[in-house]
Amino acid sequence: MKMKYFYLMIAVLSVIFLIFIIRNNPNNQNRSSMENPHKNIPDDSIHKNLFQGFSPSKENVSEAFRKKLRELENKLKSNPGDVETATELGDLYLSAHQDKKAIEVYETVRNKLQTESLFNLTLAYYNIKNFDKAEEVTKFILKKKPDEYRAIFNLGSINATKGNKELARKYWNEVIEKFPDTEEAKQAREFLARLK
Prior knowledge:
mainly alpha, elongated, Serine Threonine Protein Phosphatase 5, Tetratricopeptide repeat
């Protein structure tokens, strides 16, 4: 009888220990503080389950998603200059973690893309670790909108990733000075404190 309680106590302690490890895992803490770059993706049957912690595969991507993807691909083939279709297809590829395909589509209409889609293009380049192209697109955003503080902040992040700490500091300080009440200024302060 005492052995039964002993094993029960070990099982309970194991569960508590597992919960402790999961809650204190730095990777889990960072995920919750990161902003979802795809927050504007609709919450519908096509896009549901895209951010459930697994990569899309043939088994877990809905038929509706695949159908929508095929429709957009065919529509873009018949009208390659259609910015709206290219944007929607690029966004769909990006949300499905197919960054190279997203880049390919976005780049066909880069000069006509809206700012948010240019940010998505930057993200796709960043995801594949092509930081020079991510920086190029971000500077393109700033040519169109010189006071786009999110782009200035991103230049800091890109340069920090590339190891250009002085440039990162310059961009983040610019965000703090010119746009002090933004979320990006708050993050820039935090990043500057951690930048060594």
